[in-house]
Amino acid sequence: MTEVLKRYVDRMNAHDVKGIADRWVEGGIFDDESAKLLTGKPAYCVGKKKIRGTFRLMFLFKPKAEILKMYDNGLEMDYDIHIIGKTLPCHGKVEQQQDGKFLVYSCRPRQD
């Protein structure tokens, strides 16, 4: 899964809506508590259509993601997202996977 996480960050940095949504299986879940650091509320998306919509909106603001640490289990990473003059400290985790893609991916505010 390490490569899937790296591709997730690559697609975020390329602002590639389709490419990032393709990290999930159809019907997958993106559970993003870190969004509340920016918007005041978390993002919880079920299905590629909703995931694409969330990232389409986010990509309007040209985020830049930076991996800080990839965990040995290959399922977790610490990373920062730089967006509209702010840095969001994130901890991402593949909660469930299927066919080498995310079934459930969670993002939480990182506590440094």
The number of helical runs is 4
**What spatial order of strands do you see in the largest sheet?**
2-1-6-5-4-3
Taken in chain order, the helices and strands follow as HHEHEHEEEE
Gyration radius, in Å:
13 Å
Strand content: 35-45%
Total strand segments? 6
The portion of residues assigned to helices is 25-40%
Low-confidence stretches: none
Averaging pLDDT over every residue, what do you get? 96
Structural class label = alpha+beta
End-to-end gap:
24 Å
Quaternary assembly: single chain
Shape: globular
What does this structure look like?
- The chain has four helices and six strands, in the order H-H-E-H-E-H-E-E-E-E.
- It has helices spanning 2-13, 17-21, 36-39, 48-59; strands at residues 24-32, 43-46, 64-70, 76-83, 86-98, 101-109.
- The chain is globular.
Descriptive tags:
globular, 6-stranded mixed beta sheet, 6 strands, alpha+beta, 112 residues
Concise structural overview:
The protein has 112 residues and is of the alpha+beta class. The protein has helices at 2-13, 17-21, 36-39, 48-59; strands at 24-32, 43-46, 64-70, 76-83, 86-98, 101-109. The chain is built from 4 helices and 6 strands.
SSE blueprint and pairings:
Blueprint: H1 2-13, H2 17-21, E1 24-32, H3 36-39, E2 43-46, H4 48-59, E3 64-70, E4 76-83, E5 86-98, E6 101-109
Parallel strand pairs: 1-6
Antiparallel strand pairs: 1-2, 3-4, 4-5, 5-6
